[in-house]
């Protein structure tokens, strides 16, 4: 019996001496203990959890070098590989996981509109449910701060910049002709259907080094990666009809759509200040093919449209009016691929091609034929070194071949002229995201661009900083230089230019809490090397220079709330703009004619369950814009009256997949004035008579019926809107 007891004592002593104690404390970066962290030796059952003091301790029989792991939710895993005998009294600090939802967001100057973004101030559905937008994404964006409503134009005017200073991209690839052509004092529309996009990023300034050729802003449209179901969309409207078809396959999907618009019924029913000899017509088609590979997604997008109209507009200097007939054909093809090369490298590449052709007949004496071939090629690589440091870089090429033929009839004699140019822009960019903690991050980038006809290189540094001031708020700062080459209207007459430049300074505060978003942003833009001209409109006789300059500064405020009031979603935006510039034929620096010092937008949407209806309203106000009163001395010394518009809409659900839609713009019939046209010569009293430039109609009525035939019979058509 004694020998057996001795053996047991010897074995117990051996096992006790073979065990090693692993101990230490786990804290966050500020030294605060973390309770509940898991601490264990990899590939073993040996481990423990930390207590309220962050302390852990356990024993192991493992020997030699071992991998110790520490994990805790919202923190990066911690690993250390050493001899197990050294794992005593460890002091382990966990780093915050930068992929967590509450990480700081670099947001200065940028409005996210993706359903998947962390902070969205606008959703893609807002494009078609905002009363004043009339289904146009530009109309919806004009309710955001930083934009100015220029009713007679219809394009995006951002923070004191004209419409040519904003560029549009689809899936990261440039769109050269994003708007349909139109006559003077008649607003244009975007060419592309809002139903194609599930994400919109609208940068009002300080945007990424990845994008260039825009002095003021960029609008990034991302097409749907994967449709949710097979469906057929049918729409019948007061001004046309549309048909869409979407089919899903094992690894791919295809969406087709076509639409036809004819304003003849509308012109016949409602008085119009223009005389349409041939009302506006448009036939358009779009196709999107998607193919998902093992590690990425390929998209091919093609769109084409043909529009035409013939209009005679009032002209104070011509009793017979001003006549314009226009036929436009446009083809746009965009292909892109986004994928992972391995665990840390990703690639984004693609290209676009545009063929745009305009045939214009002016006053039956002048014929103008414009043909533009444009292309954009792009390659971007991104390396993720860690959750805290990411680097992206790439290169791109912009190619433009423009040709214009002009034929003028004078006293039975024909005179012809040709204006053309070719442009190649080569650019490279690099940008890094450095996240120091969940509360502090910076983005540093730079862009270099070379233009062949200028034989000059521009260099654009850019930087953004973001700091979380609380669990639901943050501050952001942004700085950057931005360059843009002259538009076609100038290059077709001369290529003796330099790139125009702006420098942006932005300070942003943002608060987000459970469907409520508040943003306030102050900015300053300094312009240099703007184009000046000796004539009002660019022509062969114009003398151009790059001696223009200017500034734009102001404050933008935005508030959106979709939770405080049941079934109610609303937002309010306000912009203050102080802007002056000397450019084009301006004899002195002055507030440009498209800039309004004060702009207010109020949008509200309310769902009435008993009526199965969504009722919406939009109100827009802009203070008066400048014009030159020829009966007074000075330049741009007068102001128009303020612009006001109240629009309403009503969407009624006939069934789960059928909806009836009504919309009225400017329901009060307010007589807005966009400016004035003055007579070329004074009357007998020496005064210059003038004519108010007003919209063609005071109101626009729209009625539509939409029907979706889908695999999911329970889907709600209101959601599709």
From TrEMBL:
InterPro entries: Beta-barrel_TonB_sf (IPR036942), CarboxyPept-like_regulatory (IPR008969), Plug_dom (IPR012910), Plug_dom_sf (IPR037066). Residues 1-18 form the signal peptide. Keywords: Cell outer membrane, Membrane, Receptor, Signal. It is found in: Cell outer membrane. The keyword Oxidoreductase does not apply. Its main location: membrane. It comes from the Bacteria. GO terms for cellular component: cell outer membrane. Gene3D superfamilies: Carboxypeptidase-like, regulatory domain, TonB-dependent receptor, beta-barrel domain, TonB-dependent receptor, plug domain. Residues 135-213 form the TonB-dependent receptor plug domain. This is TonB-dependent receptor.
